[in-house]
Specification:
Layout lengths: L2 E5 L11 E5 L5 E9 L10 E6 L5 E5 L5 E7 L3 E6 L2 E8 L5 E9 L2 H8 L11 E4 L12 E9 L10 E6 L4 E6 L5 E7 L2 E7 L2 E9 L5 E7 L6 E5 L2 E5 L10 E10 L3 E2 L4 E6 L5 E5 L5 E7 L3 E6 L2 E8 L8 E8 L3 H4 L32 E7 L3 E2 L5 E10 L2 H9 L6 E8 L9 H12 L8 E7 L3 E9 L4 H8 L9 H13 L7 E8 L7 H12 L3 E8 L5 H11 E7 L5 H13 L6 E6 L4 E7 L4 E4 L2 E6 L7 E10 L11 E9 L4 E9 L2 E2 L12 H24 L3 H18 L6 H28 L1
Parallel strand pairs: 1-17, 3-9, 10-13, 11-17, 19-23, 20-27, 29-44, 31-32, 31-34, 34-35, 35-36
Antiparallel strand pairs: 2-9, 3-6, 4-5, 4-7, 7-8, 11-14, 12-13, 12-15, 15-16, 18-19, 20-21, 20-24, 22-23, 22-25, 25-26, 28-30, 30-41, 32-33, 37-40, 37-42, 38-41, 39-40, 42-43
Length: 778
């Protein structure tokens, strides 16, 4: 029978040979010679190598010669990171404070191994893994489908790891095989052949990796494991730890200390701190001591978001690239959010309102226009009316040609170059929910739309802000794309400082450019008041710089971003999760880079039988008896928008059929260089049916109208509350609840129910507020 064995030692992943020779020089430098070879020890010629200074992020691009070598003189800085091919920042070169060092190094490039050892953790909750307990003895044999794997696990001293639970998890099979080590530290498994297995130990996932080959055989693997001295208690998903008097790191856990300041002033005692392990349901919980400190022993190779009772996603503890015995510490600030701390009494004012636009729930896709760039659609949700009909709902749709249809013409268009600065939030919370990864992907994809003559800059911010890419021509894009890849999350959120630097970069070229723009992306709140940030932006907006904003998740400052986008003449996007980020970025960039149509004006004309009640989706302008207008401010490829117009019916008769409603759309087409006018007529149809006719038939129309009505009610409530007219605020919410129940009595839709529960919560808060005011009055 075949036997295959493997030993794992603590060692470097890549082979290298290094030598250092120093000479006298007041400015530190390194004369560095690098040789890159593949896994078969052959030289890799023409391989791209990037050197990045660790503090300034200065980058130097080089390529290896025919023998796989390159030579470079690195001046200044204390350390340079090395990227080779697709392996980023894996190696380093240290620079002496003084003198010149001469260094040579050979690196074996093994991307497949690096990718396997650095792939992000898998969210096992989403896989629905099946657990299979095994008891495999020395007499068990391999068969045609399974091999026998024996793991020998010892401490560094050589002592066996006895009676520990061990798992072998196969993601492809969605199974975890478990067993327990014997008195010799051995764990035996019978595992399906030709599969990859993650070795779990003592509750630590993916501690080691094993690839089972295709031959039925006995396989073996040895590795070291240093147990930690932590005692854990799990209640549901929440884990508390007893660390003892002298906690230390171990081979699988990092000792991590967090110091907490409340509202940025004093270190806080007895404050619960929660660390959410990303791609997992585990949450580690502890309380701060008298010095505001809290200690954890955390599994390495993972990321953790810091939560408090009344503030979420505050910062990140990133142990994703750590192995072995490591420790760390950080300071963080806790700013309790009133909405979380006192939800029963929190009633937003108009500038604090957070609503999800009903556009987010539209699943209707209008046909792509054929004759024109922009097409108008219109229909009644139910055209049938009779003498008992009280109201009707009109759907108006807009569709433009999609991005793919226009790309060929756009790249060769004569549109003037643009001047754009990306102001990007890289705070700790961006590390969660795949946001940074999706952000980088989005930036790299949209970089394909940039032209060599476009001016591009990049500002990143957390607790402070820095210019990663000073304003410059995009050129071949190599440097800009590399800086996009370089964004890493961590720290607080300072929107104000980010915008200051963003405007500074755009202003360097604003005078010479036809279009200058700042695009802000954030998932949080800044520390400055909204009025200060808007005032800063307005100064530059008045000078011709446009501002667009992308809010990520559900905790960003919608009030601030909406005001910035509205004041700055740009778009305001909401990105519910990371997967939607690319679409929002691309939409924004296409509308900025390639303006293909000017502002569209929509005029709606109707007869005396129709009484305008409300427009949802856009703001109605110039409302009179028989007419109102609206505008489409931003027209971009792939536009798919919908508006709903609610009318009351004024004693309808059969004559209503003879006077259809008319919609006129006027816009300027830049491609054709002419004004386009489209008109649509839609008429109601008289019915001889007895009984009341439901003006809403389609379930999606009911959902969109319900969401739009509730959103509007929240806004009006906030305005009344801000004016201290709380009885009116309460009446608006109660009326909206009643109307929604009328049109959607059996609503089980989660989006509708979520918003309905929010309205009910506001009603309860307003009732309590009115009672308190009455008591004070008495």
């Amino acid at each position: 029978m075949i036997k295959i064995s493997m030993k794992v030692y603590t060692s470097l992943l890549f082979i290298f040979i290094s030598s250092l020779v120093f000479s006298q020089n007041f400015e530190g430098s390194v004369d560095y010679t690098l040789t890159v070879k593949d896994t078969k020890r052959r030289p890799m010629s023409g391989e791209k190598v990037i050197f990045t200074e660790i503090d300034s992020r200065q980058k130097i691009f080089k390529r290896t010669d025919a023998s796989g070598k390159l030579n470079i003189l690195l001046k200044g800085g204390k350390e340079w990171l090395i990227t080779i091919g697709q392996i980023r920042n894996e190696w380093n070169v240290e620079v002496p404070e003084r003198g010149e060092a001469v260094s040579t190094r050979t690196i074996t490039y093994n991307y497949e191994r690096w990718k396997r050892e650095n792939r992000p953790p898998v969210d096992r909750n989403a896989l629905g893994l099946v657990n299979i307990e095994q008891t495999i003895g020395s007499k068990d044999m391999p068969d045609e489908k399974n091999g026998i794997l024996t793991l020998k696990i010892t401490e560094r001293s050589g002592a066996p790891i006895k009676h520990y639970k061990i798992g072998a998890t196969c993601y492809a099979l969605k199974k975890t095989y478990t067993t327990t080590t014997d008195k010799y530290g051995k764990a035996r498994f019978k595992l399906p052949l030709s599969n990859e297995y993650q070795i779990d130990i003592d509750g630590i996932e993916e501690y080691q990796y094993y690839e089972m080959k295709h031959l039925p055989a006995f396989y073996s693997m040895e590795f070291n494991y240093e147990p930690s001295n932590v005692i854990e208690t799990a209640i549901g998903d929440t884990i508390t730890q007893e660390l003892g008097s002298n906690p230390t790191s171990s081979s699988n856990r990092a000792y991590y200390k967090i110091r907490v300041k409340k509202r940025g002033v004093d270190f806080v005692k007895d404050e619960p701190v929660y660390l959410k392990m990303l791609k997992s349901n585990k949450v580690y919980k502890a309380k701060t001591n008298k010095d505001g400190e809290v200690d954890f022993l955390l599994p390495v190779h993972r990321k953790y978001l810091i939560d408090f009772n009344y503030e979420k996603d505050v910062d990140v503890v990133d142990l994703s690239k750590t192995f072995g015995f490591v420790s760390g510490e950080m300071n963080t600030n806790y700013f309790p959010q009133e909405k979380l701390e006192f939800p029963e009494r929190f009633i937003p004012e108009s500038h604090e309102v957070f609503v999800t636009h009903f556009d987010e729930f539209i699943d209707k896709q209008y046909p792509e226009p054929e004759e024109h760039f922009l097409e108008l659609y219109a229909r009644w949700t139910n055209p049938e009316v009779n003498e008992l009909s009280k109201e009707s709902l009109l759907e108006i749709g807009f569709s433009s040609r999609n991005k793919e249809t226009l790309m060929k013409n756009m790249r060769n268009s004569n549109t003037p170059p643009i001047n754009v600065c990306f102001v990007i939030d890289k705070s700790g919370s961006m590390s969660g929910y795949d946001r940074i990864e999706s952000l980088q992907k989005s930036l790299l994809e949209l970089s394909a739309l940039l032209r060599p003559t476009d001016i591009v800059s990049l500002v990143v911010f957390n607790g402070s802000a820095q210019v990663s890419v000073p304003a410059q021509k995009y050129g071949n894009g190599e440097f800009v794309r590399e800086m996009f890849r370089d964004i890493e999350a961590g720290g607080g959120t300072s929107i104000y400082e980010g915008l200051v630097k963003g405007f500074e970069e755009v202003n360097k070229y604003a005078a010479a450019m036809d279009a200058s723009k700042v695009i802000l992306l954030t998932d949080g709140y800044g520390s400055r008041p909204i009025t200060e940030v808007v005032q800063l932006a307005k100064k530059h907006i008045d000078e011709g710089i446009e501002v667009s904003c992308i809010g990520v998740g559900e905790t960003y400052n919608q009030a601030l971003l909406s005001q910035l986008a509205s004041t700055g003449g740009g778009l305001m996007h909401f990105v519910g999760d990371a997967k939607n980020m690319t679409a929002a970025f691309t939409k924004e960039m296409i509308s900025s880079l390639y303006p293909v149509a000017g502002k569209a004006t929509i005029e709606v004309f109707f007869n005396d039988n129709l009484i305008y009640k409300q427009l949802y989706g856009y703001d109605a302008k110039n409302i009179t008896n028989g007419q109102f207008n609206m505008e489409l401010k931003n027209i971009y490829p792939g536009l798919n928008k919908l508006a709903l117009v609610h009318f009351d019916l004024n004693q309808p008769t059969k004559a209503i059929e003879k006077d259809p409603l008319m919609i006129r759309m006027t816009y300027f087409d830049y491609q054709q260089n002419k004004k386009i006018v489209q008109e649509k007529r839609v008429k109601l149809q008289w019915s001889d049916k007895t009984g009341e006719i439901d003006y809403l038939i389609d379930r999606n129309h009911k959902k969109l109208l319900a969401i739009a009505m509730m959103n509007r009610a929240i806004k009006v409530m906030a305005e009344y509350h801000g004016a201290n007219e709380n009885q009116k605020a309460k009446s608006v919410i109660e009326s909206s609840i009643s109307e929604v129940k009328k049109i959607f009595p059996d609503a089980q839709d989660q989006d509708v129910l979520k918003l309905m529960n929010e309205l009910i919560s506001y009603t309860n808060s307003l009732n309590q507020l009115l009672r308190n005011q009455q008591l004070k009055g008495n």
